[in-house]
Amino acid sequence: MSSVHIRDVRKSFGGFEVLHGVTIPIDDGEFVVLVGPSGCGKSTLLRMLAGLENITSGTISIGERVVNNVQPKERDIAMVFQNYALYPHMTVADNMGFSLKLRGARPEDIKKGVARAAEILALTPLLDRYPRQLSGGQRQRVAMGRAIVRDPQVFLFDEPLSNLDAKLRVAMRTEIKELHQRLKTTTVYVTHDQIEAMTMADKIVVMHDGIVEQMGSPLDLYDKPDNQFVAGFIGSPAMNFLNGHLKANGQAYVETDNGAKLPLATAPAASDGRPVVYGVRPEHLELAGDGIEAEVVVVEPTGSETQIVARIGSQDIIAVFRDRHDVNPGEKIHLRPRASAAHLFDKDNGRRI
Amino acid sequence: MSTVQTSLPAGAVASGEPSWWSRLQTNRNFIALWFMLPAAAFLILFLAYPLGLGVWMSFTDEKIGRTGIFVGLENYEWLWDDAIFWLAVFNTLLYTIVASAIKFAIGLYLALLLNRRMPFKAIIRAIVLIPFIVPTVLSAIAFWWIYDAQFSIISWSLIKLGIINHNIDFLGDTNWARASVIIANIWRGVPFVAITLLAGLQTVSPSLYEAATLDGATNWQRFRYITYPLLTPIIAVVMTFSVLFTFTDFQLIWALTRGGPVNATHLMATLSYQRGIISGRLGEGAAIATAMIPFLLAAIAISWFGMQRRKWQQGSDQ
Q1: In chain B, which residue's Cα lies nearest the Cα of A89?
Q2: Domain that holds residue B253
């Protein structure tokens, strides 16, 4: 196990820079999730950490050692690929033992190492099978087994669950997290799924267009997003954004373009009349007689909760209720944002106010 | 067919069942038969019939201008004692084995090279295909000049370099002639092997190489443990074709040496042509051609076993 330090790392393909100076400290044993929309550079960063891509500038160190010019196999890392990258012509046991074999380990040691990893992942009955004979979830576990066998300093996961169906994804999510709690190996996990990030991470790094937008614990990011991008990315359904102007005289509130008044708990340090974006999460809206009038567009019951898409003026807003309300499309409802849970962002640069 | 009445008694429904003719019309096998018929007719007319005729002819003493009578195995008995026939068998095996082995080695090397990231990749791949698309006789004529006893560019270059002082008689000396035709065959055959293996290489997911790199594999180990095993099914296919093409080669030899000097480059195909068409002894020529069949079947059998789906390729449970 080792800490990892990514310092001011940049990456260019040809003349095109895709990572613009990324710095991420990762503690020993920490589970860090890099999350962001596709094309944000998260996978590239992971591949640079693995040694599959060159580092244009900046340094990456694993433990005390700067690994910029260290061969992938010398970095003591193991990676789980999105498509698992299992060798199709090798049995599960051979797949898992391949790295030990290349290292020149004795056959009985390979067998022992494979057996131990197989035990951890409940793969023992499958050791003689070929990848083709396995289900998606089993393949996923073999890919992890291959990583565990090597007992590396750092585990790297590149969107490992995106090829699984929804139910299995949830199960594997738990399994990976449990595995981490057991092995306590430093882990860097890349995903575009913010739910995976929220549920698994010790620390989330939100990336966007080659920069780090924010990093912190899952609940920090949920409660105090630094900017509108993070606010919109973390949380599902996504946060509602309403454009308006700040009214800071007396009890502060935000007035939308069509005159609705959105409450604020505290007066922000910003001037009266400033154009702002008012953010409120769907779960922080409640039905109240004195709320903003909205027309119901769609009602989506999921059983445990009900999502209501409603229209205020020309803007759609999503509200989520644990209670069941008898509302139908076309009806008028009154929604009141919980003032203490409201977020305020600068209209121009999206920063939190 | 559809009926509005849905509440008929059970007995009455039977009369509404489709007739055997309309059932036949929707039978997939029946339709498939009709779709296959044109192709089957072509194959029977242009492949099976001539092949059968050839085999039959080998049991007759047919000559050009005279219908033969059945003579049993007489043609084969005659060939059994014919030293030139056995020389042709030896030449054919030598030609096939040496040329195929070298075509495989060079083809695989080229395929691995072309599979890398490199500038002008598409153009280079197209250039590699040139020997394959030039008409055989045209390239044979080019080789003929290259191997010419007086004007050979190879001899000329080597003399200029001071390595030799006489022209090499490429097509006049027994061993030089054999080597020369083999080299010409390799030149023509490499693109097929290279491009087919390249297609095979491109089906190997790059992430397997990345995984192997992280597992600590060197270049050689990546080839030995990933590329080669994953490529074996395609190697089996491409080498079967390569062996069949080489074994039955005719054009190149006929354009370059006509089997000479002193029958040193006669292959079974060229000997068959010479005896059957030029000398007019159709029965004997057909017997030589028919004698190729066991060799070809053996080659197919070997690769058939080689091509059998390996266990890892099977999708279902054990």
Answers
A1: B312
A2: 82-311
What CATH number is attached to the domain comprising B236? 1.10.3720.10
Chain A residue with minimum CA distance to B222: A102
**Residue A32, H or E segment:** strand A31-35
Q: Per-residue pLDDT tens for B147-205?
A: 888 888 888 888 888 888 888 888 888 888 999 999 999 999 999 999 999 999 998 98
For residue A72, what is the nearest residue in chain B, using CA coordinates? B214
Contact A132 B310 (CB under 8 A): no
Number of domains in chain B: 1
Residue A6 contacts residue A49 (beta carbons within 8 Å): yes
Residues belonging to chain A with any Cβ–Cβ distance to chain B shorter than 8 Å: 50-52, 72-73, 77-79, 81-83, 85, 87-90, 98-99, 102-103, 129-133, 146, 150
Q: What is the pLDDT of residue B134?
A: 86
Residue A84 · residue A140 · CB < 8 Å:
yes
Name the DSSP letter for residue A236. Answer: S
Q: Residue B36 domain-assigned? A: no
Report which of A294, A245, A296, A242 is spatially closest to residue A231, judged by C-alpha positions: A242
Does B202 reside within a domain? Answer: yes
* Percent with pLDDT over 70 in chain A: 100
Q: A–B: how many Cβ contacts below 8 A? A: 71
In a domain, B270, yes or no: yes
Which of chain B's residues have a Cβ under 8 Å away from the Cβ of A98?
212, 215, 225
Measured CA to CA, the distance from residue A120 to residue A129 in angstroms comes to: 18
pTM above 0.95, yes or no: no
Query: B24 lies in a domain?
Result: no
